[in-house]
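Handout, section B. The chain below has 500 residues.
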Amino acid sequence: MRRNCRRGQERRGWSSHKRGHQPQRHRTPAHSSRAQSLEQEEPQSPVNAGPSSNEDPSSSRSTQNSVAPELPGFYYDPEKNRYFRLLPGHNNHNPLTKDSIQHKAMECKRLRLLEEEEKQHQKTTRAGLNLSVLLQKRQLGSLSSTSYCRLLHELKVNCMQRRKIEIHSPDSSVAGTNNFKIIVADVACERIFTVNDVEHGGCKYGIINLSGLGKESLTVEMYDNLYFTNRKVNSVCWASLTHPDSHVLLCLMGIAETPGCASLLPASLFSSTNPDRPGMLCSFKISTAWSCAWCLNPQADNCFSTGLTRRVLVTNVVTGHRQTFGTSSDVLAQQFATQTPVLYNGCRSGEIFSIDVRQRNRKGHNWKAIRLFHGSAVTSIHLMEAEHYLMAADMAGKIKLWDLRTAKCVKQYKGHHNEYALLPLHVNEEEGLLIAVGQDCYTRIWSLQDTHLLRTIPSPHPSSKDAIPSVVFSSRLGGSRGVPGLLMAVKQDLYHFSYN
C-alpha cells in the first residue's frame, strides 16, 4: 500500500514537473486596456500625415514585443493570445520562423495601410490645414508667399491618389513582361530610362516616352531594344554627349573572367524614328564600378566619372584620357557640380569628399577639398541647386543636409529605412519635397524646409528584396506642359500619383 502511494506521488511529481516547463499562455493584465487607450490619446506630432504615415511600418513588431514578454525559442501571437515554439530553420513545410513572422506582420500592415488610403480620399497633415484656411490666411496677410506655397505643396502631397498607367509598345510582347528594377528620368522629364529583369537572367533596357501622360489618359509608349546583358547594372545616369540627354551611361559589374565596363548607349537606339543612325556607342573596360556621374561643366566637357573600389576614375569620352584618384574606401555615390568642375563622392566608409578634376592625379587626402563624415556607408548624394548644400543618405537610414561652407549638418530627415541597399534620393526644390524609397518598400515624402514627414506610401505589391519600388517625381512629367506627380515602378506595373 505504501509502495503504491509512493508511486502515485512520483507520477504526480513528474507530471507537474513537465507542466512547469511548458510556456504559459500570456494573459493580458486588467490595466493593459487602459494603457492602450492612454497611448491612443497621446497628442500627435505637429505633422500627422494620416494613419498611413504617422506610424512607422517597421515598428509593429516592437509594439507586439512590448505587450508580451519575450521567451527564448518561442513566439507570442497576440491574436490567439498564446506562445508558439519557433522552428530552427526553413527546411520544414510551412515553418514558423522569425523571418516568416516578420514578413506576415509587415504584409498585414501594408494591406491595412492600402485599405485606409483607398477609404480616405483626402488627408491633412496638420490640424486645421485645408485649402480654405490657407486662402483665408493668405488674404489676411498672416502667411508669406513662401509659407503659403510650402503649406500648399504639403496639402497636395497628402491628396495624391494612385492610378495605374497603361504601357503601350510597338512590340506587344514587350510591355508588362519584365519586372522594373531602375527608372531614371531625363532633365526635362520627357523620357525615363528603364532597366528590367529578364526571365533567363540579366537585364534589358528600354525608354518610356511620357508625352502621352495627359490629365485624362494615363498611357505611355515604351520602346525596347535587343540590347541586354547578363551582368548586374549598378548605376545609371543620363549623359549629354552630342546634345542634352543624348546618351545613357551604365555601369555593369564584371562576372567570372569578364571585366566590368561603363557603356554609353545613345537614346536613339530606343526610338522608332531613326533606327539606322543610332549615334555614338562607346564601352570602356573598368573594374567593378559602384557609381557613375556625367559632368555638365564646360571646363570638363565630355567627361564622366566612375566610382570604383578604392579609387575614382574620370574619363574623357572623346580623347580617352583618364585621371585616377586613389581613395581609402569604395565610392558608392557620385555627382558633379555644374558651376565648377568639382566631383562629390560618397564612400562605404561614411566619408563624403570633393575632387576638383582640373588637378592632376594624386594619392592621399591632400587633394580633397571638402570632407564630411557619416556614421555608415553613404548610398546616395544630391547637390542642391545653389550648390551650397548637399543631401546625403547612408545605410543606417539617416538622411542629412550638409552646409558645404561650414562642413556641418544643418538638418536631418527621420523615418528612412535602409540596412544595406544602394537606394537613391529624390529632391524637388521647386515643390520643397524630399522623396526616398526605403528597404521596407515604403515611399516617404518629407518637407525640405521643416524636415517633417508628410506622407508614407505603401507599395502596391507585397514587400520583398526584389520588389523595392523605383520612383521619379517631377512638376512636369512629360515635358513643359506635362502633369505633376510621382511615378512608381514596381514589379511589372507603373503607377502615377497625381500631384495637383
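Note. Residues 9-55, 58-66 have pLDDT under 50 and may be disordered. Compare this with the example in section A.
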